[in-house]
Amino acid sequence: MAPEIDLSRLTVAQKDALILSLLPLVGQLEAALARIAALEARNAGLEARLADLERPRKTPDNSSLPPSKGQKPERPAGAKPPRLSRPGVGRALHPDPDRVVEARLDACPRCAAAFPVAQQTAQQVYDRIELPPIRPDVTRVRLFGGRCACCGERVSAAAPAGLEPGSPFGQSIAALVVYLHYAHAIGLERLALLMDEIFSLGISEGAISNMLARARAPLLAAAATIQAVVTASPVVCSDETPAFAGAGSRRGSAAKPAGNGCSSARSRCCT
Fold first, then answer.
1. CA nearest 264: which of 255, 252, 246?
2. 231 near 244, Cβ under 8 Å?
3. What pLDDT does 270 receive?
4. Which tens digits make up the pLDDT trace of 33-72?
């Protein structure tokens, strides 16, 4: 330890000499302080990095990361393992085709030599599937009659079953319209366009609306039958979609809980 210096005993010249001797130490002290500050900053960065390394890595198991972000199993270095072979899968031939087209050779396509039919076998067999032309099937109904020579009343023949007067569109068209509208959510405007472009059947939106209105009564009757069966069941469960069994019941709950207490709308164990 350096001895203490009594500055009161020093002359001015001695003090000046002491100050001049200390000036190099001031520069060294400033350099040391700057180096200490740099080392402290580096140390803080290393501590933060160490904390990140020690923290558990985020995975789909301990965070909200999707499964696709999880760590993939390591594969051994080198080429990928060979893919397991499996038989090819193609569309099966139709068991009862409408027609069969056979193409036979008259001559060899390479050397032009005659190729007898008896020596030819099927080299390739495949189906070509097409839709038949779609056009409306129109039945003109004529009900004959006239004035009776006996009683004088004007009478006409009764219409055949299924061909009664009324809407010109038959049951097949009505069934298709109801199916496309309710099962595939096709609106009236698009449905009229579809019937015209695909089936060559001009039909107005009003006619489609009338078909849907006529189909309402049978559909309501079927819905009532289904509701009666559901509400009479000892256990009523629904999966994902809330079920409404009628007045007095709650959405998403069983209409009549079973004895085992299973009444959850999301239960998958009930049969």
1. 252
2. no
3. 42
4. 999 999 999 999 999 888 888 888 788 888 888 887 777 7
Residue 200 domain flag: yes
CA end-to-end span of the chain = 94
Closest CA to 265 of 233, 236, 229, 230: 236
Q: Which span out of 1-5, 133-137, 253-257, 259-263 was modeled with the highest average pLDDT?
A: 133-137
* Residue 19: closest CA among 36, 5, 3, 39: 5
Phi, psi of 107, deg, nearest 5 = -150, 160
Q: State how far the Cα of 194 lies from the Cα of 177, in Å rounded to an integer.
A: 10
> CA-CA distance, 165 to 153, in Å (whole number)?
21
Which whole-number Å values give the CA distances from 203 to 104, 167, 199, 215, in the listed order? 48, 11, 10, 17
Contact of 167 with 231, CB cutoff 8 Å: no
Quote the CA–CA distance of 133 and 126 in Å, as a whole number: 22
Res 128: pLDDT: 92
Could you give the CA distance from residue 263 to residue 256 in angstroms, rounded to a whole number? 8
- Rg (the chain; Cα; Å): 46
Domain encompassing residue 240: 234-271
In this structure, are 263 and 245 located in the same domain?
yes
Residue 188 lies in a domain: yes
Q: How many domains does the chain have?
A: 2
* Domain membership flag for residue 185: yes
Whether 46 contacts 53, CB under 8 Å: no
Q: Vertex 130, ends 126 and 133: CA angle to 5°? A: 155
Q: Are residues 179 and 225 in the same domain?
A: yes
147: left (phi over 0), alpha (psi -120 to 50) or beta: beta
